[in-house]
């Protein structure tokens, strides 16, 4: 009977230490990897070619959050947020790749800034 409390403590202690370690690592990662936010607009043949669907898919693969939507002037606009290197990957995709049937003439980026936390929990298509 006496060994039981010690056994419970032996199982609980590593779990608590692991939780503290994970919290510390998460805090270290968040300070080491600044979060960025950027607005974008893509010009060219980007409507009617599944551009938004491919953008959503690519954003989720890369691991960024934000949104994408068609505009009334025939462009696609949106916002991307995440770690700087992932946002840069998405910027490159928006500038050079797009959907298979699209033609990207140019992509503009604006309001690029460092943020303290993400404003979105996923990447969505807006209508």
TrEMBL record:
Entries under Pfam families matching the protein: Acylphosphatase
Gene Ontology molecular function terms on file: acylphosphatase activity; identical protein binding
Catalytic activities: an acyl phosphate + H2O = a carboxylate + phosphate + H(+)
PROSITE patterns for the chain: ACYLPHOSPHATASE_1 (PS00150), ACYLPHOSPHATASE_2 (PS00151), ACYLPHOSPHATASE_3 (PS51160)
InterPro entries (alphabetical): Acylphosphatase, Acylphosphatase-like_dom, Acylphosphatase-like_dom_sf, Acylphosphatase_CS
Domain Acylphosphatase-like per the UniProt entry, residue ranges: 37-127
Gene3D superfamilies: 3.30.70.100
Active site: residue positions: 52, 70
Top-level division of the source organism's lineage: Eukaryota
EC number of this enzyme: 3.6.1.7
Keyword annotations of the record: Hydrolase
PANTHER family, sorted: ACYLPHOSPHATASE, ACYLPHOSPHATASE-2
Family per record: Belongs to the acylphosphatase family.
Protein name per UniProt: Acylphosphatase
Organism expressing this protein natively: Monodon monoceros (Narwhal)
